[in-house]
Amino acid sequence: MDLHILDHRLRVTCISKSGLEHYTHPLIKLIFLRNRTRSEGVLTQIQDLLMRCKFFSLTETPENYTVVLDEEGFKELQLSEHLQVEGSTWLPLNVVSNGNASSSSQAVGVTKIAKSVIAPLAEQHVSVFMLSTYQTDFILVREKDLSVVVETLVEEFSIFREEGGESVPVHSQAACNGLQRNGREVPHATVHPVLIPENQFCVMSLDPDTLPAIATTLIDVLFYSNSPKEGASVDQDIECIKFFSFSLIDGYVSLVMDTEAQRQFPADLLFTSSSGELWRMVRIGGQPLGFDECGIVAQISQPLADSDISAYYISTFSFDHALVSLIFSLYVIVNRWGFSTHLEIRVLNVQYNTK
Q1: DSSP state of 291
Q2: Which of 140, 178, 302, 352 sits at 20 to 30 Å (Cα–Cα) from 50?
């Protein structure tokens, strides 16, 4: 298999719900005006095309909006007290199997890379930020950790770095410049509470050329839906939580929404897998997780990989979210994690303590 270091330098940001009105205009530009040019000149149009934002992801949770975008897109966001910016530059990695980003294995999503990528990086104390989409899974690592990433994965993968549309082979010796693995001992896994709300979710896509046809609905769902207030916690009596994720990456659209939100969109424009599979969300964290703790994704994904259970994984500024196939019962999920992890699992108002 090949591992590609994509040609994007990303920033991870968070917009408060109380400050969303200050960012609605730039976010709409990033979603709908990706082909906008500033002048009639052909040369300027080409320059604008090369400079436009090519990696954009917006995820709403009950607490805030997480926006992951490349440096060009980041220029559209004005710094203010309503915008938090994680200080690092992140690089997206993508596993390519048989020439395609999607795997032919039975399990899909983060499950297929849990043992080959996620677990080895956790063992080397490399923090990852996950973004699963309809098309593929992006593993975001800090730019400063790239040497350790390459050294850790070079035996398992042929590694390439995309530069100007070309895939350039990366060799461990050249990339690391003599740097050895960090050798730090990974701390014992922290016990994180896990909430499994009642919502059922869809992972979908659409032709980006049809975005104008759903513009009104998408804007309403993203910016004007009835969501919990700023800073509100997910109370144990709330059976469903607000979660909506939109990604436009290298021309491909991915949407993650619950079935209630799905009903607001024209059915003939959205498409999903032939099975039309639904997913159950697992929300990790009682308090904001931060960006420095390592092994959270591995802790969740490895037991699922052991059972060949498909799962998508979306990190946000405050919490992590796994989407697990509905065809597996919650009993199996709880017991797999119960034997393999230290989690406090809450399904609605039922508490499972697997410590």
Answers
A1: S
A2: 140
Contacts of 301 (CB under 8 A, 6+ apart): 110, 111, 114, 118, 311, 313, 322
- Phi and psi of 148, rounded to 5°? -65, -40
Low-confidence ranges of the chain (pLDDT < 70): 34-51, 98-108, 173-189, 226-238, 274-275, 327-355
pLDDT of residue 224: 85
CB 248 within 8 A of CB 56: yes
Contact assessment for residue 234 and residue 283, using Cβ atoms and an 8 Å cutoff: yes
Determine the Cα–Cα distance for residues 230 and 317; give it in Å rounded to an integer: 14
Question: What pLDDT is attached to residue 305?
Answer: 85
DSSP three-state, residue 98: coil
Give the three-class secondary structure for 340: helix
pLDDT of residue 65: 97
pLDDT value at residue 97: 75
